[in-house]
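P.,

For your records, the input lines for the assembly:
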Amino acid sequence: MSDCIFCKIADGKIPAAAVYEDGEMLCFKDINPAAPVHLLLIPKTHFDSLAHAAPEHEGLLGRMLLKVPQIAEQHGLAGGFKTQINTGKGGGQEVFHLHIHILGTPAQAV
Ligand code: 5GP
Ligand code: ZN
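Structure tokens returned:
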């Protein structure tokens, strides 16, 4: 989507502090962190939200969820972390490109 900020980040048209990338997903630091570690994991393909996910996204969503604890561990969150997927205006979603929030405090900083 040409006017989607996360598509632009995925395309490298807008800079972001990337921490993980492969052929189908990108993880970067949230620009307005709500925790010492606050990352966003997005699919490179655009769909608006979890409510817009289609059967063709089943494998991708599974691979994204499996990637979350790996990324979290790499950022000091082996002791635990929070994940959040806001869906729709009523769910507090502000950017309409599916994303998984990964939030936590590294153990040594507790
Ligand atoms: P939502 O409320 O849609 O679940 O979360 C959107 C998140 O995207 C917010 O936490 C916000 O800080 C983050 N965000 C919005 N615009 C940008 C941006 O241009 N770059 C980065 N890195 N994060 C952004
Ligand atoms: Zn998008």
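Two observations worth noting. The pocket of zinc ion (ligand 2) is lined by residues 1, 4, 6-7, 46, 97 (CB under 6 Å). The chain has a mean pLDDT of 96.

Regards
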